[in-house]
Amino acid sequence: MRAATSPEAAQSRIGTLETPCLIIDAARMDRNIARLRDRLAPMGVPLRPHLKTAKSIEVAVRAMSSPQGPATVSTLKEAAFFAAAGVRDIIYAVGITPCKLAKVIELRQNGVDLAVILDTVEQAEAVALASRTSGEVIPALIEIDCDGHRSGVPPQDKDRLLSIGRAITQGGELRGVMTHAGGSYAARGATALRQAAETERRSVVDAANILRQAGLPCPVVSVGSTPTAHYATDLSGVTEVRAGVFVFFDLVMAGIGICEIDDIAMSVLATVIGHQREKGWILIDAGWMAMSQDRGTSKQQIDQGYGLVCDSAGTPFQDLILADANQEHGILKVRPGSNAALPELAIGDRVRILPNHACATGAQHRSYHIVHGTSDIVTNEWVRFTGW
Amino acid sequence: MRAATSPEAAQSRIGTLETPCLIIDAARMDRNIARLRDRLAPMGVPLRPHLKTAKSIEVAVRAMSSPQGPATVSTLKEAAFFAAAGVRDIIYAVGITPCKLAKVIELRQNGVDLAVILDTVEQAEAVALASRTSGEVIPALIEIDCDGHRSGVPPQDKDRLLSIGRAITQGGELRGVMTHAGGSYAARGATALRQAAETERRSVVDAANILRQAGLPCPVVSVGSTPTAHYATDLSGVTEVRAGVFVFFDLVMAGIGICEIDDIAMSVLATVIGHQREKGWILIDAGWMAMSQDRGTSKQQIDQGYGLVCDSAGTPFQDLILADANQEHGILKVRPGSNAALPELAIGDRVRILPNHACATGAQHRSYHIVHGTSDIVTNEWVRFTGW
User: Fold this and answer.
1) Which residues of chain B lie closer than 8 angstroms to A275, CB-CB?
2) A184 and A225 in contact (C-beta within 8 Å)?
3) B27-246 has which fold?
4) Cis omega (within 30 of 0) on the bond before A42?
5) Which chain B residues are closer than 8 Å to A292 by Cβ?
6) What is the ipTM of this complex?
7) What are the beta bridge partners of residue B308?
């Protein structure tokens, strides 16, 4: 593992960082990780964190149960990066294409147990063929469509499940089944969230039973989304839970009711660069390049614009949002309908913006500046990577 | 300047690139650059291209009138990068903050004529103070608000203009006035676009006259946006035009009527990873991480979703759009209301997605893969940078 601390960063304070930049409150992050781990432990189901959110080895080692994993990734670049950093048990959780199998084989031959996912016979045949040709047996999980939101085999489609399962075993390894309850992001209220978790669980348990009854192996039964991971009350038959954004949380998760605003560990530090006083606008040097264009709260009960504005210690101003964003300009306004006063912020003052979507905002930055609670001392700078 | 060609890239073809990745059709790019240059030449007004779109020295040298500039940037990192590559005449076109002046001075002392912009007396006083303290006279342009869309001084606010101008000259250099007709993105039709260009021109010409009549210098009168640059018919009194996205164009510009679909030089190459046939969906390995979450066409007459889908040679399929996007998954669908048939695309087939917004999509990638017209040969890979 690489050294996490740069000497300059170890000396700095929030007030001296160049803006815009990305801040992580490690106290909140550690609390969020402990919360999900403590929640799953009594159910006896291990966590396989999704590292696509953080793309940082320092965050990964805190989220994983061991430095070797298990872990989930969304790109083969993530797989290669984390494998090079010592992670040994990885699922690449986007449907595999034949052209990516050479890279999968290369990573496996370097000692990482990398599994792929798929939902068609064509992909299964490609995995089996590549396994036979290379002599490297590639493990594959069948993706199940638990809620119709994206990819996967409907769990009741027995013929397709068995055809895929049998095709994998013609050279590859049928590792199990997996699903992602992406539809849970639209669930509102505890009852709906518990139902989404149960639907997710049932989909893979049913699919696993179909495979096993046909004599096919299915050791892994994997579920995962941050909302369902926090609301599941019964994980019978499930062997692992995947989740990603729980590490940092964000405004979308707060809007669904999975966390509170003061659990959100990620913020973008910005500097005031101007005013349009007669319009009630404050301009800052963080636009969509620093925040992303994720507007995930736009369909929630509280639309947070491009983010919720806090002071430099991380305390939200009342109803102040990043209402509009150009590439490197942000416009702060009081939320429509609010009677809150626009805070007095002078040119050069600093604010911190909580993001709608931690995965998207994180991706706009090359590093995390680490703080702890309300302290203004920046103890570390952790590198994060991007691209494919 | 760095070498532009990597030996591996020089050997590759579109079919062998790892996906998702970013493609630039250099034939279209060169045509777009020539078009704007040819348009402005008879009016005698030089182009100061905005390098925030491309963030690549290879694109910059093609867009600029000389390897030394002039150029516009949106961050000090861009200024430092292009200065290191030999550009000598740069405007940093986001309102300056006092904490960034040390970096501005450092860059100027290294030989680049870097100018800043501002719209308050506080910023002007900070520029003057830093100039006096450092001995490095910082040039500043006063930002004018021509259409109310963002920052700047209203051109009729004579008192504020003169106060700012006088404050700059207490140590700094009053270089001139500048504006950006961001409101022109909402204009529709040639008449409205010509009017936006004329309003933009008038705003800075009027402001320059106010300054000059008070005995203040105003050598530079700078306008700029890609829509107005392509529709201005009279640039009397203007000394330079800035524009950025004209180099690549995108679906938003096509929707406004500034370019045709087949002028768009940027696309994201992706691979088919699955189907949900009963829903009419094709899944690909490019989601919002590869495209950005820019939905700039959502309020235009034709909503292109997250992008318009072409075959691997760059020819659009009829009415096929990237209708939905998760982090690394994209869902292709026929546009609502269209009778077009879903094309037959097998797992492993490649498509190219034209972006809504070239600045936003480009920012998600670390390099450009260069092709020429319908040839599938990738002649170069050009590095692009990100961050602050």
Assistant:
1) 120
2) yes
3) TIM Barrel (3.20.20)
4) no
5) 292-293
6) 0.96
7) B321, B354
Q: What is the 3-state secondary structure (H, E, C) of A236-288?
A: CCCCEEEECHHHCCCHHHHHHCCCCHHHCCEEEEEEEEEEEHHHCEEEECCCH
Helix (H, G, I), strand (E, B) or coil at B75: coil
Amino acid at B20: P
Instruction: State which amino acid sits at residue A146.
Output: C
Taking the alpha carbons of B5, A74, A25, A189 in that order, is the dihedral positive or negative? Answer: positive
What residues in A contact B271, CB-CB < 8 Å?
A: 97, 99
Task: Give pairs for A131-137: CB < 8 Å, separation 24+.
Answer: A131/A171, A131/A172, A131/A173, A132/A170, A132/A171, A134/A105, A136/A105, A136/A108, A136/A109, A137/A171, A137/A172, A137/A173
- DSSP letter string, A2-53: -----HHHHH-BGGGS-SSEEEEEHHHHHHHHHHHHHHHGGGT--EEEBTTT
Question: Phi and psi at residue B376, in whole multiples of 5°?
Answer: -95, 5
Q: HSE of B138 in the Cβ direction (CA atoms, 13 Å)?
A: 33
All CATH 3.20.20.10 domain ranges of chain B, comma separated, are 27-246
Token couple for A381: 């700078």
Least CB–CB distance from A285: residue in B21, B94, B120:
B94
Q: Which helix (H) or strand (E) holds B215?
A: none
Q: How far apart are CA A63 and CA A327, in angstroms?
A: 32
CA distance A279 to A159: 62
C-alpha to C-alpha distance for A191 and A14, rounded to whole angstroms: 41
B-chain residues near A326 (CB < 8 A): 150, 182
Contacts of B166 (CB under 8 A, 6+ apart): B216
Q: Which two tokens stand for residue A380?
A: 């570390």
User: For A261-383, which CATH class?
Assistant: mainly beta
Positions of CATH 3.20.20.10 in chain A: 27-247
Question: Which residue spans of chain A are classified as CATH 2.40.37.20?
Answer: 261-383
Q: What is the DSSP letter of A114?
A: E
Give B-chain residues touching A285 at CB under 8 angstroms.
94-95, 97
Which tokens sit at A125?
């045949």
Helix axes B101-109, B76-84, angle to 10 degrees: 10
Superfamily of domain A27-247: Alanine racemase (3.20.20.10)
pLDDT in 10s for each residue of chain B, 388 residues: 334 444 444 569 999 999 999 999 999 999 999 999 999 999 999 999 999 999 999 999 999 999 999 999 999 999 999 999 999 999 999 999 999 999 999 999 999 999 999 999 999 999 999 999 999 999 999 999 999 999 999 999 999 999 999 999 999 999 999 999 999 999 999 999 999 999 999 999 999 999 999 999 999 999 999 999 999 999 999 999 999 999 999 999 999 999 999 999 999 999 999 999 999 999 999 999 999 999 999 999 999 999 999 999 999 999 999 999 999 999 999 999 999 999 999 999 999 999 999 999 999 999 999 999 999 999 999 999 999 9
Q: Does B120 touch chain A (CB under 8 A)?
A: yes
B173 touches chain A (CB under 8 A): no
Name the nearest CA neighbour of B296 among B253, B252, B257, B362. B252
Nearest alpha carbon to residue B325 among B296, B287, B272:
B287
Q: How far apart are CA B213 and CA B331, in angstroms?
A: 59
A315 DSSP 8-state letter: P
Window 76-95 of B, Cβ < 8 Å to A: 94-95
Mutate to test the interface with A, among B107, B144, B329 (most CBs of A within 10 A): B329
Closest-CA distance of chain A to residue B74, Å: 7
Report CA-CA distances (Å) from A316 to A32, A253, A268, A343, B369: 19, 17, 13, 11, 43
Residue B120 is nearest to which of A95, A97, A274, comparing CB atoms? Answer: A274
